[in-house]
């Protein structure tokens, strides 16, 4: 199967290796981030900032 893609996309074995390495690295880091819950801080900060903006806008719109 990789030979088919290397012919169709004109990729050499180095390019295929880089694609596989970066894809595997992404999956590992995504899994680690999900397992440790690091994304929860980002969601909390986003929601807090959104709430602060809404509260700031309320007096101006009335």
Describe this structure in words.
The structure is a single chain. The chain is mainly α and 62 residues long. The protein has three helices and no strands. The protein has one domain (2-61). The protein has helices at residues 2-8, 13-36, 39-61. The chain is elongated.
Quaternary structure: single chain
Could you tell me how far the N terminus lies from the C terminus, measured between alpha carbons in angstroms? 63 Å
Residue windows where pLDDT falls under 50 for at least 5 positions: none
Counted by DSSP, the helix tally is: 3
Shape field:
elongated
**Class from helix and strand fractions:** mainly alpha
Helix content: over 70%
For the largest beta-sheet, the strand count, sense and barrel status come to:
none
Strand content: under 5%
Tally of domains: 1
Gist of the model:
Helices cover 87% and strands 0% of the residues. By secondary structure, it is mainly α.
Topology:
Layout: H1 2-8, H2 13-36, H3 39-61
Features:
elongated; 62 residues
């Amino acid at each position: 199967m990789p030979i088919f893609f290397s012919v169709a996309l004109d990729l050499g074995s180095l390019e295929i290796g880089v694609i596989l390495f970066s894809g595997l690295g992404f999956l590992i880091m995504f899994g680690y981030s999900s397992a440790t819950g690091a994304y929860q801080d980002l969601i909390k900060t986003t929601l807090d900032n959104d709430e602060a903006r809404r509260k700031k806008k309320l007096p101006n719109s009335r």
